[in-house]
């Protein structure tokens, strides 16, 4: 009895699977190669005129999306606006100063006109006040009469004060030709200084810096 020849590692009746598997794999078409995760950027499309766009030509900066040319124009407009504002401010200050000067000048002119009017009116009644003053200083036995004259002078003095009319102080003061008229010189008495007023013949009056009437005085030699 003859022995069958056996292939090592196989049993009888088994078919060889490896050659058949290889034949099946060979019959299938080859798989397409895997593409990369990131696709290559597409080629830059040409412009209608056939030229490629220039890189950075229309690039904007970070200042509000404006180009350098637009920024220069905006800066020029801003400088012009600041200059115009400065000119208007200077003009306003000049106008305010001119108005202030006009207001002060008008006030001075109004005061001057008022003083001129008061000066003219007071000068017309000074003769009456002189008469009342002499009556008050004259010797009189009627006390009621003298009292009435003094009261009239006091009322007149209050009225002159309301009009800003003041009496020029002369008695005992150094002679001042700006406010006094000297009609006589006498030897100085004991205690009197040379050049001082020793007697007032007629009172003087002034309003503000304006002399209504100079005081008529006697001066010590």
SSE blueprint:
Blueprint: H1 17-27, H2 68-137, H3 143-162, E1 165-167, E2 180-186, E3 197-202, E4 205-207, E5 210-213, E6 215-220
Parallel strand pairs: 2-6
Antiparallel strand pairs: 1-4, 3-6, 4-5
Helix pairs in contact: 2-3
Structure in words:
It contains three helices and six strands. It has 221 residues and is an alpha+beta fold. It has a domain at 165-221: Head domain of nucleotide exchange factor GrpE (Nucleotide Exchange Factor Grpe, Chain A, domain 2). A hairpin with a 2-residue loop joins strand 4 (205-207) and strand 5. Helix 2 runs antiparallel to helix 3 (143-162). The chain starts with 16 loop residues before the first helix and ends with a strand.
| C-alpha end-to-end distance | 194 Å
Q: Just give the CATH class of the domain at 165-221.
A: Mainly Beta
In the CATH hierarchy, the third-tier topology of the domain at 165-221 is known as Nucleotide Exchange Factor Grpe, Chain A, domain 2
Number of strands: 6
Largest sheet: 3 strands, antiparallel
Question: Mind telling me the CATH superfamily name of the domain at 165-221?
Answer: Head domain of nucleotide exchange factor GrpE
User: What share of residues are in beta strands?
Assistant: 5-15%
The CATH architecture designation of the domain at 165-221 is: Roll
Number of DSSP helical runs? 3
Q: What is the 3D shape?
A: elongated
What is the radius of gyration computed over CA atoms, rounded to a whole number of angstroms?
A: 62 Å
Order of helices and strands: HHHEEEEEE
